Amino acid sequence: MEENYLQVPEPEQALPDLSISSSQGVLQWISSVDHKQIGIMYLWLSVLFLVIGGLEVLVVRLQLAVPNNHLLSPEAYNQLFTMHGTTMIFFVLTPAIFGFATYLLPLMIGANDMAFPRLNAFSFWATFFGGILLYFSFLAGGAPDAGWFNYAPLNQYNYSSSPGIDYYCFGLLLSGIGTVSASVNFVVTILKFRIGSMSLKQMPLFVWMILINSFLVLAAFPSLNAALIMLLLDRQLHAHFFSSASGGSAILWQHLFWLFGHPEVYILILPIFGIFSEVFPVYSRKPIFGYAFVIGSGVAIALLAFGVWVHHMFATGLGNTVNNFFAASSLLIGVPTGVKIFNWLATMYGGAIRFKVSMLFAIAFLVEFTIGGLSGVSFAIVPIDWQLTDTYYVVAHLHYVFIGGSLFGLFSGLFYWFPKISGKMLDEQLSRWFFWLFVAGFNLTFLVQHALGAMGMPRRVYTYPNLPGWAILNLISTVGGFLMAIAVGLLIYIIVKGIRSGDKAAADPWDANTLEWMTSSPPELKNFDRVMPVKSTRPYRDYKRPEDADWKKPNKYGK
Amino acid sequence: MEMKPIIYQWHFNLFVVLFLAGLILLYYRISGFKRTNNNLCFTLAILLFLLAECSPLHFLGMHYYFFAHMISHIVLLLMCGPLLVLSIPDKCLDPFENGISAFSKILSKYSWIAWLTGVLVMWFWHIPAIFDASFVAMNKVTSIVPLIHAGSMLFAGAVFSWPILGPDKKLHVHPLAGIVYLFTACVSCSLLGLLITFAPLTTYHHYDNGLSGMAGSNPWNISQITDQQAAGLIMWVPCCFVYLTGCIYLLQRWFANTSYSNEKSIDLKTTVHHE
């Protein structure tokens, strides 16, 4: 290397574990193009924003704890709930999913890195700086305040003259570029860098879901990016895309946003389905029930995702004809999701189940996500949607899907793969405390919001009158919120304790099935020197139990 | 004069009838009516063609309702076309064997041509000026316009579905590529449907009350805006479900066919050690 170049330290032997202090300093992390380090950084980024977004909503819940409260001004309230939603979706769930995918994908397909390692690093840093830009708005004159969906005309200069919404646009554009480039990387890695003997029909389901998800990202994000640029043109150069007063259309924003936004819901859940499709078989000690159906329903969900977005707009006056068609199509999307629920139930049926914390979250997911799914299906019925739209029923529904679905899946994945990533075991007893605290807090917070919504309490309003029942239900919700906060605090303690003084993890502590478990915990810088031939969907199990290998029973497990 | 009830409005255009007769003759020369399954597909295709071009559905589409016209399009493009392709036996009679085989090879190699044919023909007939012009003289028994309109739709539907359902299974596109093929067509279909749904009422003139030839007639009291929205939505939503069903079928075919089991990715930089 020429002398003028900056000497960037590179790992020499084993990678550092989860701690950021290494013998080669933080610069070694910053300059890394290793998929495992980038994956870990994605996960840390997600934890950081989880804490920030969580603190924001705790203040919101304090404001709502009692009626007619003036702890927060309406302006501050608007900024806080907007930042909470935007943070949780774009900078907590998305990076956490991409973190797991970046870390695990090469390991699961027998590759030593992603197809484009530098692009991988770019994707992470684009996401990171996207988040920083979004939060810089607080220093620049005010955070965005028009909700995470940023509806027109509230996003127009006349309604929000602080630069917050401009930072929203720049932040999401930057992180969106990171998301799209990461997805390209995933697709190429999966299609071109699998171990030679692994056919598509033998790929782990998590990898399958990431593959489907990546196509979903590539198809959905351009709509958001286009809308953000149009909005910036409106705000900065006085274009009129979304300004009804000057010939634009406020509804156009909703179309463009939900053309992205509804697939985004699936972008945040399909990889989670992949995580559960790894967790259920391992802890049930059975192969997944209906491997092909899990993939097929995933593909169906991805395709349907683009045909139902108008159900977010039933109340915008598009007319009965439009509403009826999208009511029908929206009802249909519950079918493939239901198929998956039965896949996992049937996987558990007759299995020798181990109730580890990861599995507890998986089982809790089945209940919570089904509740979220059912309330979602109820929105497909137009009169119910008209009655409940913009109420706390929607807030309850989306949190049952995003927390009871996505976040539970991420927790399940965290407890499952933490030993692999860190080389340390988590405290099982404390982890169970965390599980029960979180589940109790979650249901306490959001179950009552179904009732509040049915009673007509509007969302996105900074306070409420003391109507019968509203005060007590809101107080319960706030108590639940703080219980969840305590649980998250406990989780961070468990993780830090695990990293510092946890028991050393074996390479394969859960007797798992897929290739990542044949590496050491944590894996060396070079993932694999050699990989056994893949002959079924459970290659590592085949290797450990050659006499009982799946590929010897082609009729039973398919091949 | 009082109009006949709609259910009795069957109109047979001379060229359409001749075309059907020719099609039946051609099918006989290709297949000899020997295989029940192929015969069934062919019969269904002919019946659906009659439904789209001669039945009260066609009458409604001609004179009153955009949505009925749109249903005819879907029947021709997404049902008749694929059924016709399915009716072609894998072993055709001479002298058609070589021609069909060569056609299959071309479309297998250049499946984008088939995709473009399906998509472009569909869009072409919805360009407002073309759309309005296509109705001129369409209800005359001796007009050739209905045949050009329906024939091109049928042709586009058949060519579009050929790489997926064609007679030579070896020349089908890979099922996973087929999913992309259908999904992208679905996106195109959605865009067209979306444009029609939200287009101003002045975009398509044929169904303006004064121009349809049945001024003021509206047997089912459906407003023009509802009619146009329904037309666009039929193109947008149910049409996409047809493509989606095709995708699920292809996925099932991929899983069921063991010859796809040994597909490999390109080799990895990792040293592979076979135990």
Automatic annotation (TrEMBL), chain A:
The organism's taxonomic lineage, starting at the top: Bacteria, Pseudomonadati, Bacteroidota, Sphingobacteriia, Sphingobacteriales
Name of protein: Cytochrome c oxidase subunit 1
Annotated transmembrane regions: 42-66, 86-109, 121-140, 165-193, 205-233, 253-276, 288-310, 325-345, 357-382, 394-418, 430-452, 472-496
Family: Belongs to the heme-copper respiratory oxidase family.
Keyword set, alphabetical order: Cell membrane, Copper, Electron transport, Heme, Iron, Membrane, Metal-binding, Oxidoreductase, Respiratory chain, Translocase, Transmembrane, Transmembrane helix, Transport
EC number annotated for this UniProt entry: 7.1.1.9
Encoding gene, per UniProt annotation: ctaD
Biased composition (Basic and acidic residues): 539-553
Role description: Cytochrome c oxidase is the component of the respiratory chain that catalyzes the reduction of oxygen to water. Subunits 1-3 form the functional core of the enzyme complex. CO I is the catalytic subunit of the enzyme. Electrons originating in cytochrome c are transferred via the copper A center of subunit 2 and heme A of subunit 1 to the bimetallic center formed by heme A3 and copper B.
Organism, scientific name: Mucilaginibacter arboris
Positions of region (Disordered): 539-559
A Pfam family this chain is assigned to: COX1
SUPFAM superfamilies (alphabetical): Cytochrome c oxidase subunit I-like
Subcellular location: Cell membrane; Membrane
From TrEMBL, chain B:
Subcellular location: Cell membrane
GO cellular component, one term: plasma membrane
A Pfam entry, by short name: Caa3_CtaG
Keywords: Cell membrane, Membrane, Transmembrane, Transmembrane helix
Recorded superkingdom: Bacteria
Transmembrane intervals: 6-28, 40-60, 66-89, 110-131, 143-164, 176-199, 230-251
Membrane topology, from the record: Multi-pass membrane protein
InterPro entries assigned to the protein according to its UniProt record, in alphabetical order: Caa3_assmbl_CtaG-rel (IPR019108)
Keyword Metal-binding in record: no
Name of protein: Cytochrome c oxidase assembly protein
Organism (species): Mucilaginibacter arboris
